[in-house]
Amino acid sequence: MQGAVTQPKPIRRAGPRRVVVHIVLFFIIGMIALGLGIFGRKTLEGQTARMEQDVLVTALLDGSAAAVKGALAPAGSDNALTRAVDQGLSSRKRLLRDSITRQVAEQADNAAIAAMAVDTLTEGVLGRNLDEDQKLALQTTAQDARDTLVTDLAAQADSLERGVTLSQVRLNLQVTQQYYPLMYYYAPLLAFGAFLLVLAAALLVAYLRSDLEKRARLGERLEPMDYLLPFFVGVALFTLYPIVRVVIMSFQERYKLEGTYAGWGFGNYEYVINGVPGTTNYFLQGLGNTILFVLYTVPLTTVLAVIIAYLLNQKLRFSALFQTTYFLPMVTSITAVGLVWRWIFNRNFGVLNAILGFFGVNPIDWLHASQNSMAVLVIFGVWSSLPFTIILLLSGLQNIDETYYTVARVDGARALRIFRRITVPLLAPTISLVLIINSISAFKVFTEVKVLFGGYPGPVLNMYTMVYYIYDMMYEHRELGRAAAAAIILFLFILVFTMLQRYIQHRWKYD
Amino acid sequence: MTTQSKLGNNNYLLRQTLARALRYILLTIGMVIMVFPFYWMISSAFKTAPEMNIFPPTMAPRDWLNFGNFKIAFEKAPFARYFLNSIIVMAGSVTVTTLTTILAAFAFSRLEFPGREIIFSLLLSMMMVPFEMLVITNYQTMVKVGLNDSLYALILPFISSIFYTYILRNFFQSIPGGLYWSARVDGCTNWKYLWKVMVPIARPSLVTIILLNALASWNSFMWPLLIIKSDLNRTLPFGLYTFTTEVGANNELLMAASSVVVLPMILLFLFARKQIVRGVARGGIKG
After folding, report:
1. In order of start, what are the domains of chain A with their CATH numbers?
2. Chain B residue closest to A225 (CA)?
3. Which of A88, A134, A196, B104 could bridge to A124 as Cys pair (CB 3.0-4.6 Å)?
4. Spatial contact of A69 and A89, defined as CB atoms under 8 Å apart
5. What is the 8-class DSSP label of residue A262?
6. Longest CA span, chain A
7. Where exactly are the structural domains of chain B?
8. C-alpha of A441 from chain center
9. By CB neighbour count within 10 A (0-12 exposed, 13-18 middle, 19+ buried), where does B201 fall?
10. Residue A425, preceding bond cis, omega within 30 degrees?
């Protein structure tokens, strides 16, 4: 950069100002991040405390009610007594909940609360209309039992405290809608804010200590960062972080959507590969289906596409019309055309069976007979990936030097011979590229299955694919760890093809 | 080809004509197969329910102006809302992605900073990771920050695309560096140079990127399927998919709805076929 131009002075005007702008921006954003982080931490603590209180209140209330009932009307008492006790308990419960909540919030001693609760409830029971004898008997029982009940209850409550985990808070808040998402990220937010403030400070020091020339150069150094920042925010959050996280997740056994997991190890991989003994292993089924789908679709598509591309590459009338129609499936939603194909495949009124019937074939149950599922998927797969393949091959054909053909024709070679001896060999790089790209995308088949079979993996759960399995694990079962393990295996398969692609592109300098 | 006629061989000429006829016949058969599903979708959309339940089916509806199915479909499900959502997501995603792509491609092609090439090749290797793998964490992130079931979640994960940046960078690099340096010496800032010189020159590439991005956004299915829960936040393909359970056996309604989803992209393709085809050919990526 410096070497190319000898007189770069007019370029450097904007430098110093850029440094100042950065210092101010870093400071402001840093302060905001810190503020959000501190607020988030406070909210999280508040929510956790509140939830712990809720748990404690419920435990005390239910515990005291159960304890009083157990003492006054033990199992096997006559019905009238049980009913009277129940009524007595419920008459006081709402008031009691309020007073327990108040006392818990005031952080009163558990023993004191327990005593208050037992007393209130006993009072409630004794306040029912019972005959004198029973009342007296109950009173004595209650007095005798009171201290044990209170001690037990207090001990129970004591052991309860500090029992709330972060994921419980998260779950509870999602249910109750009191959800302030940033609070779980207070730590990264604080770190980010602090980092920016330090950066701002460092820049300020550097700025104050250098002369105009150095300040300008500092500003120029900052420039690429400004251009890259928005891009890198996206890449970091939604590509880099997910890659790292998924790898880690695949080793967190039974990692759930809520963030809980059982431990570290290869459990997810074992589950994915071994399945549940005695049931169908849908991952292996999906792997088999995916590989079959690739093996059927990719070569078939390529052969057809080579022929069509060859024909389209000749001098043609209506070339625009042909191209438009052949490329149409590429731009249309797989979901929409999938539904159309579903209608075409319809057993009773589908047009495909009508056409086949014309040739004397009995109606075929395409969509609901499991032996036809793969055929349905392959037909649709070939049809939908043809346009893309044709386009790539066509551009490959157009890159072949016209003189080869001229020379061959002058030598009297026939069309078929030209096709076999010139077109195909010269097209080989493009063909192998197409094979690889199509294989990669066929490995990821999902939407086609989901749409063609009405939202299920095949009529009798026989058409799982690898991505379908991942989707199922992630979305239906919330088992992100297992989904991650399956995704890593999928990635390894795709990696082989990607490496091949890189190699071919490198070797043939295709770009 | 006509130059061959000087050979004066009748047999040869006949073979030529036959070959040409065969070529047209083959291409036409292929064309019919490729287009037939679209024809079938549109013709079924205009059929009445009794017309649908005939075997063998009729090739054309009795009344090509029977818009009743569209009306019923729009009444049964909020397709206008789905349409609006799709437009919002597409516009948002295309705008943001194009901006980040232009800025990043410029930095990677014209600005100098330490580790530029290493960072870029690292980015390229990240491109190998399929979206189906990233989806797991992204889904959890969206649920965690409470953005699931919102249109933001449909835009956010796609704000920066390594692939488009790669395409645009390649194009930027093909613009001679001398232009850049002479502009810079004349006092043009990087920012001005990017927007006043590079972006106008790179317009064809930008159009391609925008078109590919719009197509991908409009047709995306798996991500909305994971993210969107409530009816009013669905985009067209996902809304259409859920519509299948609603219509039951009334395929004419489904075909009407499918036409609504497919038509905008067909129109776009008719107007911008060359750009889209060029983009696909150059990028070598499947939509």
Report:
1. 21-176 (no CATH), 293-465 (1.10.3720.10)
2. B107
3. A88
4. yes
5. -
6. 125
7. 2-69, 78-283
8. 20
9. middle
10. no
Cut 0.95: pTM above it: no
A501 → chain B, closest CA residue: B128
CA–CA gap between residue A190 and residue A415 (Å, rounded): 71
Between chains, do B27 and A322 touch, taking CB under 8 Å as contact? Answer: yes
Prediction ipTM score: 0.90
Are B255 and A325 within 8 A, CB to CB?
no
CA distance A49 to chain B (A): 20
Each of the 287 residues of chain B gets a pLDDT tens digit; together they read: 445 445 556 777 888 888 888 889 999 999 999 999 999 999 999 999 888 888 888 888 888 888 989 999 999 899 999 999 999 999 999 999 999 999 999 999 988 888 999 999 999 889 889 899 999 999 998 888 878 889 999 999 999 999 999 989 989 998 888 888 888 888 788 888 899 889 999 998 899 899 999 999 999 999 999 999 888 999 999 999 999 888 877 889 999 999 999 999 999 998 888 888 888 887 666 54
CA distance B201 to B173: 12
Q: Phi first, then psi: what are they for A479, rounded to 5°?
A: -95, 80
Q: Is-contact A423 A310, C-beta < 8 A?
A: yes
| Cβ atoms A249, A255 nearer than 8 A | yes
Q: What is the DSSP track for B92-137? A: HHHHHHHHHHHHHHHHHHT---TTHHHHHHHHHHHTTS-HHHHHHH
Tracing tokens 């157009």 back to the chain, one arrives at A398
The whole-angstrom separation of Cα B141 and Cα A233 is 15
User: What amino acid occupies position A184?
Assistant: Y
Cα distance from B185 to chain A (closest Cα, Å)? 6
**Which of B35, B40, B74 is CA-nearest to residue B236?**
B74
Among partner residues A1, A184, A326, which is closest to B112 by beta-carbon distance?
A1
Return the residue of B nearest to A313 by Cα.
Answer: B23
Listed residue (A179, A167, A178, A163) closest to A58, CA to CA: A163
CA–CA min distance A403, chain B (Å): 13
Long-range contacts for A287-291 (Cβ within 8 Å, ≥24 apart)?
A: A287/A466, A287/A489, A289/A374, A289/A463, A289/A464, A289/A465, A290/A442, A290/A443, A290/A445, A290/A465, A290/A466
CATH topology for the B78-283 domain: MetI-like fold (1.10.3720)
CA distances from residue B228 to A177, A334, B130, B235 in whole angstroms, order as listed: 17, 18, 21, 9
Q: How far apart are CA B214 and CA B244, in angstroms?
A: 25
Q: How many residues does chain A have?
A: 511
Nearest to A119 by CA among A153, A143, A85, A97: A143
Both structure tokens of A504 = 């071919």
Residues of chain A positioned with their CB less than 8 A from the CB of B146: 179, 181
Chain B residues near residue A454 by CB distance under 8 angstroms = 244
Residue type (1 letter), B10: N
